[in-house]
Amino acid sequence: MFSTWKSGGDVLKTSLPSFGGQPVKAFIGWSGILIADTEVNLLEALIAYYEAVQRESCGRCVPCRVGTRIILSLLQKLAQKDDPSLRQQLMSVANLVVNGSKCELGQSAGKPVIDFLNNYQELSKYCAPSNSDQKYHALVTAPCLHRCPAHLDIPSYIERTTERCFEEALEVIRRSTALAGVLGRVCVHPCEEHCRRGLLDEPIAIRGIKRFVADYELKRGRKPTLKGEGKNSKAQVAVVGAGPAGLSCAYQLARKGYKVTIFEALPVAGGMLAVGIPPYRLPRDILQGEIEAIKALGVEIKYNTRVGQDISLQDLIQNYQAVFIAAGLHDSAKMGIEGENAGYEGFIPGVKYLRNMNLGLPIPAGKRVAVIGGGNVAMDCARSSLRKGFEEVYLIYRRTRAEMPANECEVRDAEAEGVKFCFLANPTEIVAEDGKVKGLNCIRMELGEPDASGRRRPVPIPGSEFFLPCDVVIPAIGQVADLSFLDHEGIELTKWKTIAVDPVTLATGVPGVFAGGDIVLGARTVVEAVAQGNRAAISIDQYLTSGKVEPVREDLVDAWLKEFGVFDPNERVGILNGRPRQEEEMAPVEERLKDFREVELGFNLHDGITETGRCLRCYRVGLMVLDSASNA
């Protein structure tokens, strides 16, 4: 193994994961060269690498577009004759490319040839004669793009937004999701965790920019419009559940021309988007507009149709050519404390509380409410309770604020609005009088050793019991699936009571039946559900066209990059910081608590464009050298 690939800590990377089970002989990319096979012809591989760079270079700056073309030409000449003057020219041009390119693609593209030239004598034994056994696989990625579960092309839509090509930016987003306005509001933006701008100052407001372009369309009086691919298929697909996973699968299949019917138990589409997220975070007109755009592609949604009661799963399997199960998690997990199952007036699980509130159904009334939990559902219950007129809202969490799984912005907004946090506390009993909730018996906790989640386990403190008076108790400690509709013995369950599927293709044990979203992953995020719906559509298309379901090339690349790594938290970016992140407008606290009006108001035109200008456009090109016998 020879490596010039250094992490931010100057530690050489010295291993190459296999690609689809096949050994990778070498990898050339944004941080140098790794060689694992003495038979690699490095010079030929470098030529293939710069051919790939040329295909991706946008041409917006001369050093990248022209410079890498010159590097390619010089390498081709060097392959014919080892001339010291050619190597001098190569080094000069490569440094110009690294130092003069506007974005990361060009800035990183010069490094491999510089490393090659600096180590040419040492690497001469790796420059084998022309070798017909070499096979190349080029890839293009970016840290934010790869971290996004749905792999939205983030640098592309940000760049188009910078250029004020808002319709083009939306087209880029809608290749991966029909829910641009939804994700622009409620996505937990894991992409920002891997934004290289964050190594300088603060990450790009990626979610806010997505919302910005989606809102721009609406502000111009246009309805969301989605485009199909013009194909037509007679195959019919059934989808169980109109949540983000089901809608995303239906969208991608409809684009390919399939006839899709969604069976939804609720009177509305959207799943937890519609009945689990309050309107102050996701206005209903935003969600409904994007659902109508999906329906305009030919997707039919049958409301108030519960699979397992109104129609059986077995009927769907028999009457449709493929089935995607995306029923979600609509039951609340149990706390396991005394009084939980007594049917007291004033007790309501968090999922039901939000569902009833969003559907206009009755909810308990009172002055003081206690919400148990530390996730986003708990935050939604607490903040919604303030808007429903409760005078005091307590949130009880058994760990500290640092361990709370809820988004930091949700916690911050809950505090600003007046939610009272009781950290390191846990309920032990629901206290009632004449069948009505009167309060909670609780106990103080302390943090012990880490548990399976990596967080320190909360341990009760003997003798620290206390009573919290309240009229309403809302547990929101987790969500579970109602699997009573599963009437086919071929569909297996995991030990966590979720549906067992192939982790890549999402196929169940029944041919033509697939499952995804929370009913497979457990309670996760909206963007992860979107990713699962997209991936299921690929498998269903495979099944209906070839009868076989297998991983596609993108799956192999994704798995390889996850093991190899794209984002380096210790990287020295090497440019000046000092461009602060723009803040989205917010409704004043005193105004937002009056009703369920939207709290986050997005970017205005100036701030939205300004924020896109902070993007470093971190595209990166990589090239695997494989054996020609590889089937990967």
UniProtKB/TrEMBL annotation:
Entries under PANTHER family matching the protein: GLUTAMATE SYNTHASE [NADPH] SMALL CHAIN, GLUTAMATE SYNTHASE [NADPH] SMALL CHAIN-RELATED
Pfam families reported in the protein's UniProt record: Fer4_20, NADH_4Fe-4S, Pyr_redox_2
Listed SMART domains: NADH_4Fe-4S
Boundaries of every NADH-ubiquinone oxidoreductase 51kDa subunit iron-sulphur binding domain copy: 43-84
MF terms in GO: 4 iron, 4 sulfur cluster binding; FMN binding; NADH dehydrogenase (ubiquinone) activity; oxidoreductase activity
Gene3D superfamilies, sorted: Alpha-helical ferredoxin, FAD/NAD(P)-binding domain
Record InterPro entries: DPD_II, FAD/NAD-bd_sf, FAD/NAD-binding_dom, Helical_ferredxn, NADH-UbQ_OxRdtase_51kDa_CS, Nuop51_4Fe4S-bd, Nuop51_4Fe4S-bd_sf
Designated name of the protein: NADPH-dependent glutamate synthase beta chain and related oxidoreductases
Superkingdom: Bacteria
Positions in coiled-coil regions: none
